[in-house]
Specification:
By secondary structure, the protein is of the alpha/beta class. It has two domains: about 200 residues, YjeF N-terminal domain (Rossmann fold, 3-Layer(aba) Sandwich), CATH 3.40.50.10260; about 230 residues, UDP-N-acetylmuramoyl-L-alanine:D-glutamate ligase (3-Layer(aba) Sandwich), CATH 3.40.1190. The protein contains 14 helices and 18 strands. The longest helix has 20 residues.
């Protein structure tokens, strides 16, 4: 099983059906999943009392099995079920519990609440009665644990289907991650997330979570060109290009050049600044990757620089102003390109390429397919999409990244990974992980330059 895969509700149902086809019954799988969840809850609860809220479907069945296991562990357990079981497996689980079942909260209080009311199959809001019951119980329990997906959150989108949904301390995903575990606003309600394996096999076409890359140190006979030669094309605002260059120098490439119209002032002595005409500078056949966009500007000269950079047909990272200037006719056939738009730039690109989609993830995928570029759509729940349909979601990064210049740092990391030999999709995933990890290493209230300098430490963790 690949623990990084992220499944839609329908993909999860199909994956479970393949388990059933191999001879496992629904109730046996329920016991496996709920048993794994109960072990987590046992450790979290210690000897404290537990209330389990059960719904009518198989998620409620999980709750009855959890209650049964916790009772065997010695916990005091109360089960609340406002509705009778509606599936054979849920009824069998209730029979296994065999104890009293309350039909309302009745001012029930305990140390821990386990939410098994509705799981990943829910696509409509909770009824007023059920929403009130969930909120009321959450208010009267010190610790709250959700099974699979908290009730009232859409599994495939992370949307909140009801107002005033409670926040949980822990969410135990059953079998595989769901999109709601990674996407806002639902993700913010889930607290710490843990995966309970149940034998789900790899699903073709599944999305994945970006994971720590496995990188290698330079070979013993390496030199600067063999390690990757990256160019950053500057423009009217040199500071952003310098930031990107500083990050690129610390992300694995052997040689980073900043192509600028004029000297940019004080920079790292190791950064080579080339002020020769762009046509001459980009004509170096040793170039392995180009970044254009940070500080480029949006005048006629900037558009000309962008067109010329794309005409080189080198692996290219497009960021910032380049994304606002980009037109479909500028891209070569089968571009080896990575675009790194924030939401405003993504919206502009979708208009330019006649792409219509709602969520950041869906826009990124539609744009990748329509343009031929890999798209790293930046935001609090970033998504990476490739033209062939591959999708990765980026685990939450520190919110301290929300300062000017950090996008330039991300672009610099990406061109360095691209120049080092990574394909655009892999370069995007590696860059996203290194960017987030560098922010974690910086702590609180850092500058974009401090972030760029922290990238080398993040990269060292991947060796």
């Amino acid at each position: 099983m690949n623990s990084s895969q992220i499944l839609t509700a329908s993909q999860m149902q199909a994956a479970e059906q393949r388990i059933f086809d191999r001879g496992t019954s629904v109730f046996e799988l329920m016991q496996l999943a709920a048993g794994g969840a109960a072990e987590w809850i046992r450790r979290l609860a210690g000897g404290r009392s537990v209330t389990v809220l059960c719904g009518p479907g198989n998620n409620g069945g999980d709750g009855y099995v959890i209650a049964h296991r916790l009772r065997e562990f010695g916990n005091e357990v109360t089960v609340i079920a406002p509705l009778e079981p509606k599936t054979d497996a849920a009824q069998e689980a209730r029979n296994l519990w065999g104890g009293a079942v309350l039909t309302s909260g009745n001012r029930q209080g305990a140390d821990i609440l386990v939410d098994c009311l509705f799981g990943s199959g829910l696509s409509r809001p909770l009824s007023g009665e059920h929403a009130l019951l969930l909120r009321d119980l959450a208010d009267r329990h010190a610790t709250r644990i959700a099974i699979d997906v908290p009730s009232g959150i859409a599994s495939d989108t992370g949307a909140l289907l009801n107002d005033k949904l409670p926040e949980f301390d822990v969410t135990l995903a059953l079998g595989a991650w769901k999109f709601a575990h990674w996407l806002l606003p639902g993700r913010a309600k889930m607290g710490t997330k843990r995966l309970v394996p149940i034998g789900v096999e790899d699903v073709e076409g599944a999305a994945h979570a970006v994971s720590k890359p496995r990188l290698a140190p330079p070979s013993l006979d390496a030199h600067k060109y063999r390690r990757g030669f990256a160019a950053v094309v500057g423009g009217s605002m040199p500071g952003a290009a310098v930031l990107a260059s500083e990050a690129a120098m610390r992300s694995g490439a052997g040689y980073v050049k900043l192509f600028a119209d004029q000297a940019t002032g004080r920079t790292d002595p190791g950064l080579v600044i080339d002020t020769s005409p762009l046509a001459e500078a980009l004509g170096d056949r040793r170039l392995d990757g180009i970044l254009i966009g940070p500080g480029l500007g949006r005048d006629d000269g900037a558009e000309e620089r962008l067109s010329y950079a794309l005409s080189m047909k080198k692996p290219t990272v497009l960021d910032a102003d380049a994304l606002m200037l980009l037109r479909p006719d500028m891209l070569p056939d089968d571009p080896v390109a990575l675009a790194t738009p924030h939401d405003g730039e993504l919206e502009k690109l979708c208009r330019a390429f006649s792409v219509v989609a709602e969520s950041r993830r869906d826009r990124a995928l539609a744009l990748a397919r329509g343009s031929g570029m890999v798209v790293l759509a930046k935001g609090p729940d970033s998504a990476i999409a490739a033209p062939d349909g591959r999708v990765c979601l980026v685990p939450p990064a520190p919110s301290w990244l929300s300062i000017a210049g950090t996008g330039d740092v991300l672009a610099g990391i990406a061109v360095s990974r691209l120049a080092s030999g990574a394909e655009p999709f892999d370069a995007a995933c590696e860059a996203a992980w290194l960017h987030s990890r560098a922010a974690q290493r910086c702590g609180a209230a850092f500058t974009a330059m401090e972030l760029a300098h922290a990238v080398s430490g993040a990269l060292a963790e991947c060796l």
